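Practice problem: predict the structure.
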Amino acid sequence: MSSERLAALLDEYAELEKRLADPAIHADQGTARRVGRRYAELVPLHKAAAELEQARADLAAARELAAEDASFAAEAETIAATLPVLEERLAELLIPRDPHDAKDVIVEIKAGEGGEESALFAGDLLRMYTRYAERRGWVTEVIDAQDSDLGGVKDVSLAIKAKGVPEGGNGVWSRLKWEGGVHRVQRVPVTESQGRIHTSAAGVLVLPEAEEVDVTIDPNELRIDVFRSSGPGGQSVNTTDSAVRITHLPTGIVVSCQNEKSQLQNREQAMRILRARLLAAAQEQADAAASDARKAQVRTVDRSERIRTYNFPQNRITDHRIGFTAYNLDLVLAGELDGVLDALGEADRAARLAGDAELTRRRARPAGRGRRLPPRRSRC
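Answer:
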């Protein structure tokens, strides 16, 4: 393990502890939250380092006593046996972690191949993530949704937030970052009169939600257009130019929002997604040489690019990146996602411990490669 890195992180921990003890920091809630998140990330490291230091001190004392009294030899052996476990734990915590792990997320779900059946499945995925968030005590907010005729969703953006500062810096992104890609479903659609099993797909994109300090946006680089909302009707919908489309001119990223009643509200929601997309684009650019797992999130809904299959006749869920299979699909769709997410997290942890970046990328890459569409336009 790197003693220099450990010393630097422990110094950072001490500095953050001092900052949080200063009442003045709480005058700016945004700063306090960012400092609190980083502090929470370093708490497990500080604890592990302290436990290892204490164990080494106890071992030295036990061996010194054993030189004079043989009865302490057994105690020294017991303490010595704990050191490899503590050292491994500390070494794991010293591995550079995903810088977005403490962040909240925006999940975008888009129906793809399969028509109405795909839209119904997209609605199932929306409920799955919403129920999982409820189990974790997170807060969900549908930023915008375009419903289908049979009660599914054609396109939806869902914000998921942790309450307070995530313990250990493990926020929503640390759990749901694995969900980006094409999800395939195999079942008998409600529209199928012959009872035949159909295959359709929905695309999921997970973005770490960016704060204003994470991304600098020059207002002069934005083109903002307003237009009349389309939807089922109601106040301000189909009656006023309340919908907003924002184009970020340097990148060509386009985001449109229309669910809220006013232009101001729709503009604020569109800016949330634009910041998240710009943050993700900047991260991709920075990691282009490494081609990390974030780049593996699929931007199309081609079935050949699947990361996971939901097979209803067999009550089976299979994640193709790590070969995970379980026969509890009904429970997974009810929000019990921890089994597959734990398996994905463990695969990533093992790869990082082994220092095998290529293995990490291979596990995150979808099994097939299909046609790719420009990832630049987004509804919110």
